[in-house]
């Protein structure tokens, strides 16, 4: 059997651990792996598909990023591209395909399975942790560890200068990174997409803290946070292949910081963590999770269980239908958000 593997969408820590696990488990069964370069774009270009052996994945477990490269290519934007993907799968003799990605990459995989009966299995990765069917996705634990570490460092400078520090983190439609990272890092207020909050409420909270003698504060803002009394604009022509607006042009952190200083008079600074949250070596948790997911994905192929992905439920790895995983984004458990509020 010949199995293809690709990584799509944004990079995150743990992708190489998953690739390594796929290759090692496939080798255990006596099968062959072809690595597909740059996500779905690699299946539109015959020159980007190459054998991937145990030797080539040796030593990549602790490496961030992905040795296969990635892209935000959406073949379903063009029917000819879909046909080209299917033709290249056949041309390279691929008996099955493992797609490692978030809701967009897995959405393409689900369509290939549902509409074209392709033998596809997914592996959920995204630092946003917003894929249904799994408690954790690859990359999330590393991202929130980076956020918590950053907040630890920012607390000391905020305290020294008696400032408000606004920290913008990733999270387009789900605020998992903001909530878990903020809870672990001792944030004094958290703004997320799931719970709209006016800047007026934030400012009143900061003023109450000053009256209590707390002369500095840390505000964590998810990039997709909804603040109704602040106007944001991503500008024209800033959508990706899947129709998502580029939130780096939205500048929600800067807008929140500017309004806080204008309304309260408190000196305010803004830190945008950006791609720092994606980079660097994966945590122990992400290394083990990615390894378990990679092994399970190959096992599903061995069993003929296509159209599924492995998910983590509690401590167990369980199969989840791709079509269910990509129906809607998995949003924050608001009980966790309310828990964080206890410590504001």
Write structural notes for this entry:
The chain is α/β, with parallel strands linked by helices and 344 residues long. The protein has a five-stranded mixed β-sheet, sandwiched between helices. Helix 4 packs across helix 5 (176-185). The chain has ten helices and eleven strands. The model has no long low-confidence stretch (mean pLDDT 94). Strand 4 (96-101), helix 3 (103-116) and strand 5 (120-124) form a beta-alpha-beta unit. It has two domains: 2-139 and 282-325, 3-Layer(aba) Sandwich (Rossmann fold), CATH 3.40.50; 142-279, Phosphofructokinase domain (Rossmann fold, 3-Layer(aba) Sandwich). The longest helix is centred in the middle third of the chain and has 22 residues, at 140-161.
Helix/strand/pairing class, anyone?
Answer: alpha/beta
Task: Assign an overall shape.
Answer: elongated
Q: Could you say what the CATH architecture of the largest domain is?
A: 3-Layer(aba) Sandwich
Would you state the CATH class of the largest domain?
Answer: Alpha Beta
User: What is the string of SSEs from the N terminus onward?
Assistant: EHEEHEHEHEHEHEHEHEEHH
Low-confidence stretches: none
Largest sheet: 5 strands, mixed
The figure for the number of domains is 2
Enter the CATH topology name of the largest domain: Rossmann fold
């Amino acid at each position: 059997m010949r199995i293809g593997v690709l990584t799509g969408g944004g990079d995150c820590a743990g992708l190489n651990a998953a690739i390594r696990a796929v290759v090692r488990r496939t080798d255990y069964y006596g099968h062959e792996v072809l690595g597909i370069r740059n996500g779905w774009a690699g299946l539109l270009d015959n020159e980007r598909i190459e054998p991937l052996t145990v030797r080539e994945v040796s030593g990549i477990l602790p490496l961030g990023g992905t040795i296969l490269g990635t892209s935000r290519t959406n073949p379903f934007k063009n029917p000819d591209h879909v046909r080209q993907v299917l033709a290249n799968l056949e041309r390279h003799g691929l008996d099955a395909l493992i797609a490692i990605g978030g809701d967009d990459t897995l959405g393409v995989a689900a369509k290939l399975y549902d509409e074209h009966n392709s033998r596809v299995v997914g592996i959920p990765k995204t630092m946003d942790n917003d894929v249904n069917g799994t408690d954790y996705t690859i990359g999330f634990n590393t991202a929130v560890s980076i956020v918590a570490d950053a907040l630890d460092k920012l607390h000391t400078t905020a305290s020294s200068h008696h400032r408000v520090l606004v920290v913008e983190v990733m999270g387009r439609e789900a605020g998992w990174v903001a909530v878990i990272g903020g809870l672990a890092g001792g944030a004094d207020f958290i703004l997320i997409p799931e719970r709209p909050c006016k800047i007026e409420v934030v400012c009143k909270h900061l003023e109450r803290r000053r009256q209590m003698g707390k002369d500095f504060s840390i505000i964590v803002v998810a990039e997709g946070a909804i603040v109704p009394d602040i106007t944001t604009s991503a500008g024209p022509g800033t959508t990706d292949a899947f129709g998502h607006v580029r939130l780096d042009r939205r500048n929600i952190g800067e807008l929140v910081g500017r309004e806080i200083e204008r309304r309260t008079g408190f000196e305010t600074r803004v830190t945008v963590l950006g791609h720092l949250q994606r980079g660097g070596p994966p945590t122990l948790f992400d290394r083990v999770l990615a390894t378990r997911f990679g092994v399970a994905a190959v096992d599903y192929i061995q069993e003929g269980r296509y159209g599924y992905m492995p998910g983590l439920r509690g401590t167990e790895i369980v199969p989840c239908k791709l079509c269910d995983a990509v129906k809607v984004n998995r949003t924050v458990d608001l009980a966790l958000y309310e828990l964080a509020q206890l410590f504001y």
